[in-house]
């Protein structure tokens, strides 16, 4: 009665405690935006060689307007060689897309320092996104710990109608479950409907599971997975992996694919989903097709068919980022690229690009429709732009008219025949060298040491320096974008930008902060990316405690990993009673936290309220050490 998730864990010889899963990942994925910190942490912990297969992708910071990104890449490349990790060079493609094509293995586990690592679930592999420090520790060969998730089964039946694709399926699910509906859950897909979904479709669905806060999403490995692996020259990696017919799921949902229509997420949240037909006609200044969600050959082929012998509307810009170099090569070979270029699209580098605000920021106050996965306010790099999320079909149809357009009006759905075999070309993947001792590590001037947490004192006292609302994302806490990404290996350089999207004046008080202060958050605090900078940076200037109504999984883990206390209001209503600048005191913290009942005294307003922490014993020890880095160092030294 095992589901796919449990079968993968069994294969991994994972162990279970009451509240955690303990596993040793088969593979580690890192990328250049979170990865420099991972590598700095490895160095700080004295790790000489990585244990599991590890690969560093250069895909986020490929703009080279100053020395910073390029310096980071030299560092990543040289240290990879030294510690035994692979490198995927800039231009090879987006980490999740390349990983799916080149390294995904049904039945195995990949842990990555990026929230969309679950994309590998499209090929029957369990992908889990984590904070960089957790990833660094797993690279060192130590265990990876995961809060024990519930397993949600989604049974798909029926077949998608013309002009409806995988993106619409996951937008539909997001509409139903919302951005916090996946918290603490692994989502597993099965049923007759999956037989009509290619691995690329499945990967799109797993990718956006991250937007629901899901721990992971996974599809079985079946004959469609085999067909995919054959097409990328890796038939030998296939193994069948399907749930037992009486498999147990903690929750079950049924979805009939035939009932799904083209859908679109309105600004500024991926779950703000309506039918495309309800918002048709809204003018678009920009349309962007790409990202790890929708940049496969299938997606590009559909777009090319729509654009063939047609013209992109004069009022809009169409920008295209193929997901991998292999996709780009196929676009050249099949003529898809010609159709796209002839129609008037701009072709960008094979990389993450505009998805994370690196280039192509829309005009002020304008509308941009993207096939990406996140549309948080400001993420595009333009504070007042309105970003919509939709399928490649809807994006291509809208490119022809310059406004939101239901693709079903385009007539007959084009027959896409995908190549049976995709050219295998691993020229841009660099293997580690055997003579690693002689490799010199190159560290540019922008690379600064990572801050280290401090053990939590028994009495915590400080003022509330920030009060935030619900669904605050890590982009709100520490923005992405070209300028910020160049500072990812320079934590002090990030300080002036912390919380700038929530409180633009925050930078003015940074100099006068005490060495211990509080943040108050609403529901799902810290959703979105895995970037631990959203903890590291405020921690480096004294953030000690965050009290929220609830946390996103990776963010809560990152807080603990840096010795910052994550507390949850026992009564949500207490949130309303706390104001900015209130002075809060927690006494006898060490004793209180063990009982998971922590009383906080609001000295300014003279009242107390209770909170909980729900940390495992292991996490408590980490917190008392001032974070995972100190804890792991002590552990490794003792060995
Ligand atoms: C994102 O999509 O937000 C990112 C950039 O890929 C992040 C990682 C990061 O902040 O570097 C993610 O999803 O984890
Ligand atoms: Fe890159 Fe965007 Fe995917 Fe993040 S979501 S990995 S920025 S393409």
- Which band does the percent of strand residues land in? 15-25%
Strand order of the largest sheet: 21-22-23-24-27-26-25
Average pLDDT number = 97
Helix content: 25-40%
Radius of gyration: 24 Å
Q: Outline, from the CA principal axes?
A: globular
Low-confidence parts: none
Annotation, overall tally of beta strands: 27
Terminal residue distance: 40 Å
Secondary structure class reads alpha/beta
Written account of the structure:
The structure is a single chain. The chain is α/β, with parallel strands linked by helices. The chain contains 22 helices and 27 strands. The strands form six sheets. It has a seven-stranded mixed beta barrel. β3 (27-31), α2 (32-44) and β4 (53-57) form a beta-alpha-beta unit. The longest helix is centred in the N-terminal third of the chain and has 16 residues, at 68-83. The chain is globular and about 70 Å long. The chain binds alpha-methylisocitric acid and iron/sulfur cluster.
